[in-house]
Write a structure and sequence with these properties.
Oligomer: single chain
Number of strands: 5
Shape: flat
Structural class: alpha+beta
Strand content: 15-25%
């Protein structure tokens, strides 16, 4: 691994730890009765610290009713992938006929 790759890797680890710390701090600032342990840091980075459930797992990773590719993580900070939507988009793009190329190109 090159020096620049190690530096980038270290920066990403520090950023991930900082986001987790910010999310925990955000929850701990709330009165105990108002802590939900899920939300967004800086109204952008989603976090989910509740124990995963099968329902939430399906809702975030295989949800035919959600057109988004990126959904909130099942547990942790960041995003998950809605594999149903990815599969649908891949099938749709495969079913479309390709654009014919001209003999000049």
């Amino acid at each position: 691994m090159s020096n620049s790759q190690r530096t980038l890797s270290s920066l990403l680890k520090v950023a991930a730890i900082a986001l987790v710390a910010a999310a925990v701090y955000q929850e701990l600032k709330k009165p105990p009765g108002e802590r939900e342990w899920h939300g967004k840091v800086a109204n952008f980075f989603p976090y989910e610290f509740r124990l995963p459930t099968w329902e939430r797992l399906r809702e975030r990773l295989w949800n035919p009713e959600d057109p988004r590719i990126f959904t909130e993580h099942v547990f942790g900070v960041g995003w998950a992938i809605n594999f149903y939507t990815v599969l649908q988009k891949l099938q749709t793009s495969k079913d479309k006929p390709g654009t014919p190329t001209s003999p000049d190109s």
